[in-house]
Amino acid sequence: MLNFYKTVDNRIIRIDAPEAGCWISVVTPTEAELTYLTGDLGVLVDFVRAALDEEESSRIESEEGQTLVIVDYPSAEEQTDENKTILYTTLPMGIIMTKDYVITVCLEENLTICDMAQGRVRGLQTSMKTQFLLMTLLRIATRFLIYLKQIDKISSSTEQRLHQSMKNKELIQLLGLEKSLVFFSTSLKADEVTLEKILRGRIIKLYEEDEDLLEDVLIEVKQAIEMCNIYSNILSGTMDAFASVISNNLNIVMKVLTCITIVMAIPTMVFSFYGMNVSGLPVAQAWFPVVLSVVLCIITTLVFMKKDMFR
User: Fold this and answer.
1) Helical ranges in the chain per DSSP H
2) What is the dihedral sign for C-alpha 115, 53, 130, 75?
3) Helix (H, G, I), strand (E, B) or coil at 175
4) DSSP state letter for 3
5) Residue 4 contacts residue 16 (beta carbons within 8 Å)
6) Residue 57 DSSP class
């Protein structure tokens, strides 16, 4: 899907055809749209293909007067399994700057592009390509922080539910959050390296206000990396603690069952002795094995209770 946008009177409006100084939004393009980009608009094929590669890492590259910046942006999706767990992942987004246009290429529609297209980003100028790039990167960094706060809230609520009942659903949710934090940490570190390359100014010329904006982006990214590390350590410690709790609960259950088994085995042993076809057993009366079994069971139970074996 191709959409064309341009800033007119400080407002983002949608236009029907590309114009100089416009922004072209490309989301899950068809082969015909890819041909239009590379043929009619002259965008390098390698740049478009790289931006659509799901495994492409964050980087910056310039060739034939065009500049490609690939960054990872966060994405949240609900799993289709019965536990309805939420998994946060990252996907690459390519930003291509040509002589006349700035082009964003995404594998799927994301909130950052939607906010920009709907005019929710203040001061966005499509004709100022470097500023457009940096403001896009700032929105992506902000989106990382938003999702990290969501992960923290989900983790806290899941932990509260785990205090009440040890179920697989909560543990699987925590495992998914821990996996999401690994994705975020890897992507944020790669984005940080790309931003530092941009800051050097060798590939993209930066003005003073651009440098200030880029520094703001770097601060947001570094903050996201720090939050990601903190939440990851907390979540890892929580998972280890609950694993120990579950193991301890299992040991308690096995201990109680063992004590019950010992108590229940006493009547079996007594009646086995008095059920043998031999003579000379003490008090060989019908009532004595019953009384003896009851007494021994009570004594054994009291001993176990005194030693807190049923807790």
Assistant:
1) 31-35, 45-51, 111-117, 129-164, 168-199, 208-274, 287-306
2) positive
3) helix
4) E
5) yes
6) P
Rounded Cα distance, 4 and 101, in Å: 10
Residue 156, token pair as written in the block: 């806290």
CA distance 281 to 43: 102
Produce one character per residue of 58-77: b if its CB has 16 or more CB atoms within 10 Å, e if not: bebeeeeebbbbbbbbbbbe
Tens of pLDDT, residue by residue over 210-245, are 888 888 889 999 999 999 999 888 888 887 877 777
User: Looking at residue 278, what is its pLDDT?
Assistant: 66
Predicted local confidence at residue 225, as pLDDT:
92
Distance of CA 60 to the CA centre of its chain: 25
- Quote the radius of gyration of the chain (alpha carbons, Å): 33
Q: Are 28 and 108 in contact (CB under 8 A)?
A: yes
Question: What does pTM read for this prediction?
Answer: 0.78
Q: Is the dihedral of CA 276, 281, 285, 289 positive or negative?
A: negative
What is the pairing mode between strands 86-97 and 11-15? unpaired
> Which distant-in-sequence residues (6+ apart) come within 8 Å of 50 by Cβ?
56, 68, 70, 94
Residues of the chain with pLDDT under 70: 79-85, 163-168, 277-280, 284, 310-311
Write out the DSSP string of 227-280: HHHHHHHHHHHHHHHHHHHHHHHHHHHHHHHHHHHHHHHHHHHHHHHHTSS-S-
Token pair belonging to 270 = 């007594």
Strands lying side by side in the sheet with 86-97: 11-15, 2-8, 22-27, 101-106, 86-97, 66-78, 59-63
